[in-house]
């Protein structure tokens, strides 16, 4: 049995006969055109093609090989001769050749009877159906594999696009230097909490004399200090609390679902976070912060839209922070004057 390959040539893919014949014929190939020409010149027995009296060289290589040891028989019209061949072409519905059965050595040594030819013709037809079905199955499997690959690429594209969108969304709502929420994210989270009438505390933090850090040590050290401050703020609050950077050296913490006493304790924890020096390279800098607290109970007396109340709370915490900063600065100046006077008296 020979089957047409993708390149159009035929390859022997199955042999019924002695082992030496299978070894000699399996895998042999031949060109299709000479075979088609050979069948055109052969004797037609219905769909079968019978060849007699041809020399070996007239038959395309790989299609038909006369088994060794076959002796010529008396030519009585029924005996099979060594130079005989019976071909059963297999074609698709369009008449295109898809395979070929070749009978080289009938077991009874006789030319097949008409009923045997009919069986061979039917067998060739069924074998052709089997080849077509196998090819359709292979094509369907290949299409399914290509479709699955396309779906996989589509899923990967969607996942990649989703990751990019998440990354862009994160960038749009987070500070690039510290990774904290930016004013946009802070405003959205604060408005959502206020709309749900959840009690919350807003703590405004402003670093004291941070400009001196940049002027003295450079902006690279200043950026490192800001990142370390962000880490300390995150460590001082709960995981669900919002920590945002809203300015160069300004931070805001929003803690939801807490009472007023808990809000005061939160301010104390944040203040303690600034009580230890920050290691910035070879330097250890004591960076302090002024804090301002604004508290929103669960049932506020004033009736404002969440957006307006959010701005009011941030402004209130900011004003308290600046009041404390001024008070601390005044205390520092008074202390400095007192020490100066004491030194003058002592002198």
From TrEMBL:
It is an enzyme of class 2 (transferase). This is Diguanylate cyclase. InterPro entries: Biofilm_reg_signaling, GAF-like_dom_sf, GGDEF_dom, Nucleotide_cyclase, Rev_trsase/Diguanyl_cyclase. Residues 198-334 form the GGDEF domain. Residues 137-164 form a coiled coil. The keyword Nucleotidyltransferase applies. The keyword Transferase applies. It comes from Actinocrinis puniceicyclus. Keywords: Coiled coil, Nucleotidyltransferase, Transferase. GO terms for molecular function: diguanylate cyclase activity. SUPFAM superfamilies: GAF domain-like (SSF55781), Nucleotide cyclase (SSF55073). Its EC number is 2.7.7.65.
């Amino acid at each position: 049995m020979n089957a047409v390959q993708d390149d159009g040539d035929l390859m022997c893919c199955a042999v019924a006969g002695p082992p030496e014949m299978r070894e000699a014929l399996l895998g042999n190939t031949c060109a299709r055109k000479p075979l088609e020409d050979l069948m055109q010149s052969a004797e037609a027995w219905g769909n079968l093609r019978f060849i007699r009296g041809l020399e070996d060289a007239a038959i395309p290589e790989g299609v038909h090989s006369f088994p060794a040891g076959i002796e010529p028989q008396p030519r009585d019209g029924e005996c099979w001769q060594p130079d005989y061949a019976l071909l059963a072409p297999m074609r698709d519905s369009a008449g295109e050749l898809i395979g070929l059965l070749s009978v080289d050595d009938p077991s009874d040594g006789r030319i097949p009877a008409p009923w045997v030819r009919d069986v061979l013709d039917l067998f060739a037809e069924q074998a052709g159906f089997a080849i077509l079905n196998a090819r359709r199955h292979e094509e369907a499997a290949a299409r399914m594999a290509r479709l699955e690959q396309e779906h996989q690429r589509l899923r990967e594209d969607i996942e990649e696009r989703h990751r990019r969108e998440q990354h862009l969304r994160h960038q749009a709502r987070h500070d690039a230097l510290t990774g904290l929420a930016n004013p946009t994210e802070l405003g959205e989270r604060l408005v959502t909490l206020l709309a749900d009438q959840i009690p919350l505390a807003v703590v405004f933090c402003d670093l004291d004399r941070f400009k001196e850090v940049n002027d003295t040590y450079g902006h690279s050290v200043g950026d490192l200090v800001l990142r370390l401050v962000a880490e300390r703020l995150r460590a001082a609050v709960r995981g669900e609390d919002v920590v945002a950077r809203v300015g160069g050296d300004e931070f805001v913490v929003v803690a939801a679902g807490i009472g007023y006493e808990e809000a005061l304790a939160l301010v104390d924890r944040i203040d303690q976070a600034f009580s230890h020096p920050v290691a910035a390279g070879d330097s250890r800098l004591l960076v302090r912060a002024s804090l301002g607290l604004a508290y929103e109970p669960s049932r506020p007396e004033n009736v404002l839209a969440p957006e307006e109340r959010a701005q009011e709370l941030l402004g209130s915490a900011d004003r308290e922070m600046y009041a404390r900063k001024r008070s601390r600065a005044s205390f520092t100046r008074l202390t400095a004057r007192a020490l100066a006077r004491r030194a003058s008296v002592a002198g």
